[in-house]
Structure formats: structure tokens, C-alpha cells
Amino acid sequence: QVQLQESGGGSVQSGGSLRLSCVVSGYIHNTYCMGWFRQAPGKEREGVAAINSDSTTNYADSVKGRFTISRNNAKNTLYLQMNSLKPEDTAMYYCAAAQHDCNSGAWVMEPDYSGQGTQVTVSS
Q: Which residues lie closer than 8 Å to 60 by C-beta, 6 or more apart?
């Protein structure tokens, strides 16, 4: 049984940094797209960053240059380094795995697996 467990969220001031981690237990094929999406109250789910099996990455325009996604296959862990945080980054952040291509939006809306989420709150 596959489980994704996020950690690392918290409350920071604008301009601060956080690093989210997602530990994957169980088997996920190495061709899966792995990524982070977020959802704020009253807003649509938004794909933040994704990484393909060949380690190429995709980012939402709103986080380019500030967020970095990475993975450590030996530790079965996915990371999201978030710098220069803004109040509009406030949301619940979820780790996800999907058979869909990372270049499509389907991995956000129809992930095969996702975690329970970790809350990120950025104050001005």
C-alpha cells in the first residue's frame, strides 16, 4: 500500500523560507510524475512544482525562481524548498504521484496518490 506523508509546513513571515518533505512508503513506479500542489480555502487546486522520472522539472509561473523541487530516491523522499515566501503562498500543500505526464495538468487533478497535506501560512 502506497502512502505519502508530508511534513515541514508552518508559519513564517513574508520573505521567509520553508522546506517541505514527502516520504513515500510502498512502491511507486519510477516513471510516475511526482509533484506538489496546493489549495487555499475557496480557491482551486494549483500545481506548484513537479519532477519527472528523468529529473526534469516544471513550476507554476507564480513560484518560478523561488521554489525548487527535488527528490532523493535513496530516501524515497520528495522535497520542496520554498524561498522568498509571500502571503499568497498560504495554502495546504500536498505531495502527489501520478501516472500522468508532469507536463499535463492531470497529475494535479487526478493523482494516483496524495498525502494528507501540510499547512503553510505566510504573514505580511
A: 46, 47, 48, 49
Question: Using one digit for the tens of pLDDT, what is the confidence trace for 66-75?
Answer: 999 999 999 9
- What letter represents residue 60's amino acid? A
- Residue 38, CB-side half-sphere exposure with 13 Å CA sphere: 21
**CA-to-CA separations, 71 to 15, 74, 85, in angstroms, rounded:** 24, 9, 21
Are 7 and 118 contacting, i.e. CB atoms less than 8 angstroms apart? yes
What would the pLDDT profile of 11-35 be if each residue is shown by its tens digit?
A: 999 999 999 999 999 998 888 999 9
Pairing of the two strands 3-7 and 57-59: unpaired
Contact 120/91 with Cβ under 8 angstroms?
A: yes
